[in-house]
């Protein structure tokens, strides 16, 4: 099985220094860390990147949600663009060095993301989640449809637990994205190891079995 990615996304519920401290303890098991802090200013997001690098988190692992300006200035790996963000094509043409993720909710949006030059897409929500109350999940069926529509790597998000990770991967996802399942867990390191184990990571099997 090809390596599957594990993305950790900030919850917007933690003080930044607490978030950074948690990330510093788990990043060895993570491919990408997304800074998704919708209420933070550009300077606060910039400072978050600085705190992460001070704690030995490489820029190559950091993706910033929406704020293309901060992503370009800090030279992080990339930027995650959503419905209200700048369009993928414009950002890609002006900042070709940035890895661009596009948040999508349908196969039509997946087709558009690929056409416009995105590097990957984030699709969800797969399962019911407290962050999307009253909105029906798109489920494994929706994920399968999107994966069959695009050549882009599809990262699944939304209510994914360790025990459901394999179902998501078998549906064709290139990886998963997790928020509270790791960052708000009582034992974030134990939680991230369990996800990493379910994704087939070498070196965490024995550790995960002890959880």
From TrEMBL:
Keyword Repressor: no
Alphabetically ordered keywords of this record: Thiamine biosynthesis
Positions of the Thiamine phosphate synthase/TenI domain: 16-182
Keyword Phosphoprotein: no
Database matches in InterPro entries: Aldolase_TIM (IPR013785), ThiamineP_synth_sf (IPR036206), ThiamineP_synth_TenI (IPR022998)
UniProt source species: Litchfieldia luteola
A Pfam family assignment: TMP-TENI
Source taxon at top rank: Bacteria
This protein's name: Thiazole tautomerase TenI
Gene3D superfamilies: Aldolase class I
PANTHER family linked to this entry: THIAMINE-PHOSPHATE PYROPHOSPHORYLASE, THIAZOLE TAUTOMERASE
Pathway of action: Cofactor biosynthesis; thiamine diphosphate biosynthesis
């Amino acid at each position: 099985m090809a390596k599957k990615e594990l993305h950790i996304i900030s919850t917007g519920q933690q003080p930044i220094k607490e978030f950074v401290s948690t990330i510093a303890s788990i990043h060895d098991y993570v491919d990408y860390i997304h800074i998704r802090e919708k209420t933070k200013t550009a300077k606060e997001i910039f400072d978050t990147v600085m705190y992460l690098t001070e704690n030995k988190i490489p820029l190559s692992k950091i993706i910033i949600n929406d704020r293309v300006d901060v992503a370009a200035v800090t030279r992080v790996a990339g930027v995650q663009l959503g419905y209200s963000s700048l369009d993928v094509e414009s950002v890609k043409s002006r900042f070709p060095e940035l890895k661009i993720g596009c948040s999508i909710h349908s196969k039509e949006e997946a087709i558009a993301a690929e056409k416009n030059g995105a590097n990957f897409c984030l699709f969800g929500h797969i399962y019911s989640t407290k962050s999307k109350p009253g909105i029906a999940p798109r489920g494994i069926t929706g994920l399968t449809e999107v994966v069959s529509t695009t050549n882009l790597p599809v990262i699944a998000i939304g209510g994914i637990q360790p025990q459901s990770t394999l179902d998501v991967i078998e549906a064709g996802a290139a990886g998963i994205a997790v928020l509270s399942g790791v960052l708000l867990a009582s034992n974030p390191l134990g939680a991230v190891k369990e996800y990493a184990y379910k994704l087939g990571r070498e070196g965490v099997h024995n550790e995960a079995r002890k959880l």
